[in-house]
Amino acid sequence: MDAAARKAHIERMISVSERDKIRFAFVSQSGKHSLVWAAWGSGSDFYLGARGTLGTNKISLHASGICRDALTKTHHDKLAIHTGDPAADRAIIKWNRLPTPEVGGVPVVSLVFPTDYMTQGPPEASLRKPVWVFPAAEPGKAVEVLFVYSKGPPEYIEEQLKPVGSALFHSTLTNGDCVTALVRVTEFDFSVIPTTD
To answer: Is 62 in contact with 45 (CB distance < 8 Å)?
Structure first.
């Protein structure tokens, strides 16, 4: 693919991503990939989820400030048939985010991709459903993707947040909040991973 064709391809991917979910993954130097994650704004809310589990659970960051990692309604209703408890809360975890500041940003969600645990092959992608693949950290470390709420033009926010990490992408919500995905390399504490023992 020559430079002009590559540029046109990237512009089409950006155009699709602006109207749909942004799908992203990381690839190690050995060619192993992370799971693909999707992120998207809908009105004044923002959502995240891993490919393969979006039908069962997702992370919801609501304009009200209430944040949840919860089962989807469809999956919850299917489980309720077996458990006999349709009133059970769909949320696995709930928290309240701080109000969006006028200056700077407030972190709301952090996703960590430890390089040594990447096991996937290249992700399936198409022009209609592109996947942005970024380099992983070196072995023994991790890439952290931090989702930060802020106000103001994305370019201004990206400049303000440079000491925290590099901007991967952003989404401006209808209420004026801007959600920026920042990426940075971090040390990884392997003791947080449960063992078979």
So the answer is: yes
What is the rounded CA–CA span in Å between residue 19 and residue 56?
23
**139-170, pLDDT tens digit by residue?**
999 999 999 999 978 888 888 888 888 888 88
Rg for the chain, CA atoms, rounded: 18
Lowest mean pLDDT segment, chosen from 31-45, 68-82, 101-115: 68-82
Cα distance between residue 180 and residue 157, in whole Å:
8
Helix H or strand E encompassing 45: strand 45-50
Question: Residue 145: which of 186, 178, 117 has the closest Cα?
Answer: 186
Which of 149, 145, 144, 173 has its CA nearest to residue 160? 149
CA–CA distance from 40 to each of 19, 73, 75, 80, 175 (Å)?
A: 9, 18, 20, 28, 15
Is 0.85 surpassed by the pTM of this model?
no
Asked whether the CA dihedral 133, 162, 140, 193 is positive or negative, the reply is negative
- Write the single-letter amino acid at 59: I
| Confidence (pLDDT) at 17 | 42
Phi, psi of 46 (to 5 degrees): -135, 140
Residue closest to 55 by CA, chosen among 78, 77, 36, 72: 72
The phi, psi pair for 136, rounded to 5°, reads: -80, 175
More confident residue, 56 or 150: 150
Q: Containing H/E element for 144? A: strand 141-150
